[in-house]
Design brief:
Elements lengths: L5 H8 L2 H14 L2 E7 L6 E7 L2 E5 L7
Antiparallel strand pairs: 1-2, 2-3
Length: 65
Amino acid sequence: MISPSLEQVAEYINNPLWVEFNSRIQSAYQVKPCMEYSRCSMQAGWYEIQKSGKSFCTLYPMQGY
């Protein structure tokens, strides 16, 4: 499976709050997003933020949210 780019995810979500959230979480916690596919039983999707090599949080992008 090919990972989408951050730009593709932002385009898919199509919500300006996503861009603001992404910027704030990266600057506040000094982290970078990692496009990993999550097979969570609640909702599968792409996007994980790691810090020190461990999962910091996982987000499940949805169109318009």
